[in-house]
Design a protein that fits this description.
The chain has 284 residues and is an alpha/beta fold. The protein has 2 domains: 73 residues, 434 Repressor (Amino-terminal Domain) (Orthogonal Bundle), CATH 1.10.260.40; 193 residues, Endonuclease, Chain A (2-Layer Sandwich), CATH 3.30.870. It is 51% helix and 12% strand. It contains 12 helices and 6 strands. The protein has a 6-stranded mixed beta sheet, with helices on both faces. It is elongated and about 70 Å long.
């Protein structure tokens, strides 16, 4: 058996607290199962925290402090880890970039906005400007940098297998001027083809279908149960309750059935991109 690889506590704030959690747990002579007992969290969740992959929520921090007799250390410091992880992202989104990095598969349903992993810089700026026009420019720049960093997902070895489903209105109702919209659609097609990922479109003529109520992201992991992410205008929810996760996954499978085939989807996106380029040329 190869030697165990201890977490590198210097890699980030969450990694530091994860390494400290493992140290304190082992010093107390407890297994992950024993530490999790009495909390609302599972063993896999604790394991991800020890590896620096997820932040420690406040309820668990209080439980850990009581169980390990660490005098409130984790309850006082878990907010530091949250801030480090959410830099440039809304607080409620703090876990998602790291979950994307550690996932085995990712499945997106995007009815209203192009998913963040595909957004061009122009689209990001426009999205922030129209959704929260009161934000200071420096804060907008920080958010855009954080979103661009998420796109490094496509360059990583061993990245998650990706499957996305978009609504056709994202293509037909442009949020950007014609040239920038053409570049956005070309970028989506290029990413899908180069990464050998799968993308489908739900046609505008399909009025009734599963998951009509909003954005959904499904993430599965090699060493942890799957989770669902749903998001509204100013809030989001991470769902890991197995029966509810199963319902979302069944609905997503039904959504695939009403969506266009992958090759037809890419053909439609590339055709729309050409149309926007032609429109841009005519405006010059």
């Amino acid at each position: 058996m190869p030697p165990r690889k201890d977490p590198d506590g210097s890699a980030s704030v969450p990694a530091f607290y994860g390494a400290e959690l493992r140290y304190q747990r082992e010093a107390a002579g407890l297994t992950l199962e024993q530490l999790a007992e009495g909390s609302f969290r599972g063993i896999s969740f604790l394991s991800q925290i020890e590896r620096g992959e997820r932040r420690m929520p406040e309820d668990l921090a209080r439980h850990v402090d009581e169980k390990l007799k660490t005098d409130g250390f984790f309850a006082r410091r878990c907010e530091d880890a949250r801030k480090a992880r959410s830099a440039g992202h809304p607080a409620y989104y703090a876990d998602m970039p790291d979950l994307e990095r550690s996932a085995a598969t990712i499945e997106d349903w995007a009815p209203m906005l192009i998913p963040g992993l595909f957004q061009t810089e122009a689209y990001m700026y426009r999205l922030v400007e129209v959704s929260t026009p009161w934000r200071p420019r420096a804060e907008v720049e920080k958010m855009v940098r954080a979103r661009l960093k998420r796109a490094e997902f496509w360059e990583r070895d061993g990245r998650a297998t990706y499957w996305g489903i978009l609504h056709e209105q994202l293509i037909r109702r442009p949020m950007l001027p014609p040239l920038q919209m053409a570049e956005q659609l070309e970028h989506i097609a290029e990413v899908i083809r180069s990464s050998r990922s799968v993308l489908q479109i739900v046609p505008e003529t399909t009025y009734g279908h599963p998951l009509m109520m909003g954005l959904v992201k499904i993430a599965t992991f090699s060493d942890a149960p799957p989770v669902i992410w749903t998001e509204g205008a100013y809030s989001g929810e991470l769902i890991d309750y197995p029966p509810l996760v199963a319902k979302y996954r069944k609905a997503y499978d039904l959504l695939r059935a009403v969506a266009m085939p992958p090759e037809a989807t890419l053909a439609l996106i590339e055709e729309a991109a050409r149309g926007y380029r032609d429109e841009a040329q005519q405006q010059d």
